[in-house]
């Protein structure tokens, strides 16, 4: 009776050893890294009427003619909450317009932001917030897969701002000291692994102090870039001797703004009476759609 019992004990020990060995041996994985390169360059820039629809979302990044001063790049693992890489390059920095990584196989998301002005970020390395006032803002998100070969991709950024122009048709009087132009704008752009979005809508006011050279000018223009894409009220104030109390106020409701459009608000600010302002919505800085409010 002892021999069969001993044999069963030996077999049980061997079976346990086999199971333990198989648990301790990890399955083979492919840890090889592959080169991934994004080329963000050679786009056309527009700041005025466009010659073709093909140009409407381009941003020129070559050193001679671009107004782009900063490019921000973020790399996320798809489905993840954190970031893998973050680069913030100024014009003149080595590699401006080109971003390279060595990545293991998997699915990733790359996010890009370009701007003609300084961009602040929250610095928490999870959510990146860009605070206005805005210059030209261009973004792009690219989902890609690394399998068993290098990846080389050209990226064209899309403009996400619009432009709002105030055109004061009547002559600026000699006793006007300053003009205030107030409008609704989003104050932040959040870029995360799950997506991009503008937030923190509030009133932004641009103040222009009138110089002696500007007195008497007609069709005086104030242009701002905004990132608010809806109808809102625009308020224009002008001041004379008292810098804190407006001498006159004009309010224009339902001023429509859309991404990549220029909206022009035109009218007489200083002329007595109730003459209204007109609103011109310019499709991609090109074909206008007129409306009077």
TrEMBL record:
Swiss-Prot/TrEMBL keywords: Signal
Residues annotated as signal peptide: 1-22
UniProt-listed PROSITE patterns: PROKAR_LIPOPROTEIN (PS51257)
Protein name listed in UniProt: Fimbrillin family protein
């Amino acid at each position: 009776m002892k021999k069969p019992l001993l044999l069963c004990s030996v077999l049980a020990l061997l079976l346990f050893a086999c199971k333990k060995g198989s648990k301790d041996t990890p399955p083979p994985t492919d840890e090889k890294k592959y080169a991934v390169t994004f080329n963000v360059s050679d786009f056309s820039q527009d700041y005025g009427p466009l010659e073709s629809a093909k140009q409407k979302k381009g941003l020129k990044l070559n050193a001679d003619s671009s107004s782009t001063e900063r490019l921000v790049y973020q790399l996320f693992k798809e489905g993840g909450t954190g970031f893998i890489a973050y680069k913030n390059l100024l014009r003149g920095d080595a590699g401006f317009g080109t971003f390279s990584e060595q990545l293991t196989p998997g699915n990733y998301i790359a996010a890009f932001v370009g701007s003609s002005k300084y961009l602040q970020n929250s610095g928490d390395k999870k959510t990146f917030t860009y605070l206005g006032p805005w210059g030209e803002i261009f973004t792009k998100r690219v989902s890609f897969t690394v399998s068993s070969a290098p990846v080389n991709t050209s990226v064209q950024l899309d403009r996400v701002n619009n432009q709002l122009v105030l055109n004061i048709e009547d002559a600026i009087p000699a006793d006007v000291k300053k003009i205030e132009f107030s409008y609704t704008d989003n104050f932040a752009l959040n870029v995360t692994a799950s997506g991009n979005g503008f937030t923190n809508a509030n009133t932004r006011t641009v103040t222009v102090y009138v110089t002696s050279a500007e007195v008497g000018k007609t069709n005086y223009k104030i242009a701002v870039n905004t990132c608010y894409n809806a109808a809102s009220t625009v308020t224009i104030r002008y001041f004379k001797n008292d810098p804190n109390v407006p001498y006159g106020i004009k309010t224009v409701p339902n001023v429509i703004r859309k991404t990549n459009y220029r909206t022009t608000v035109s009218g007489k600010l200083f002329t007595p009476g109730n003459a209204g302002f007109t609103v011109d919505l310019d499709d991609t800085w090109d074909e206008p759609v007129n409306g009077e409010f």
